[in-house]
Amino acid sequence: LSIYKACWVGGSCSGAAVLAAVDDAIHDGVDVLSLSIGGAGPQFPGTLHAVQRGISVVFSGGNDGPVPQTVGNALPWVTTVAASTIDRSFPTLISLGNKEKLVGQSLNYNAAMNNSGFQDLVHVQSCDTESLSLSNVTGKTVLCYAPAQAAITPPRAELHSLINRTIEAGAKGLIFAQYTVNLLEILTSCEGFMSCALVDFEIAQRIASYSKMTE
C-alpha cells in the first residue's frame, strides 16, 4: 500500500500536486491508483499516462445527485465508483379522498398527529417562499412537486430549508417529490411539527392529478 498526499486542509487539491502524486505512483510501479477526489479538474487527464502503463485508475463519482448528469470524473479510461444506499425501505401509506392508497417513504415520529384524519391537500409546485405565501396552506398537507426545478436543484440541498418554510407557513403535512426517496434522515426536521413523506415522481403525479380534480 502506497499513500501519496496531494490534498490539504480545506479540501484543496491542486492540479500540480495531483499530477506529481500520479507520476510518483507510476514510478513506484503501483498496480491500482485510487483517487477519492470528487470534482473534475485539469489534472485528471494526466491519469491516462498511468492507464497506458497498465495501471487501473479508480475515481470517486462525487457527492452530487441523484439529479441526472451530476456524476463527476466520467473519463472513458478510468473506473468511476459511488456509494450505494441501504437495502431497506420505510413505506408509509398516503390515503387520498377518493380512497386511493399510494405508498411513499416516511419516518413517523408522532403517531397521534399522523392518525388525526384527512387534511386538505394543496399542490404548491416548488414550495418556495413566494409560492407558499400565495397559497393558503395553513392546516393543510402540502405537495411539493416541481419536476423542472428538481432537475437543477439537488434534493439533499433543498429539502431541509423547504421543510422549515412549510412549517413556518402553517402546514400540517408535507409530501415531497424528487428523483430519490433516500433522504429520510432529513425528515427529522419535521418531528413534532407535521407529518412528512417522500414520494417519487410517478406517485407525485398521481397525487397532483387528484389535487387538480378536487380544486
UniProtKB/TrEMBL annotation:
Protein name: Peptidase S8/S53 domain-containing protein
Keyword terms of this UniProt record: Signal
Family per record: Belongs to the peptidase S8 family.
PANTHER family: PROPROTEIN CONVERTASE SUBTILISIN/KEXIN
Peptidase S8/S53 domain span: 9-112
Pfam families, alphabetized: Peptidase_S8
Gene Ontology terms, MF aspect: serine-type endopeptidase activity
One GO BP: proteolysis
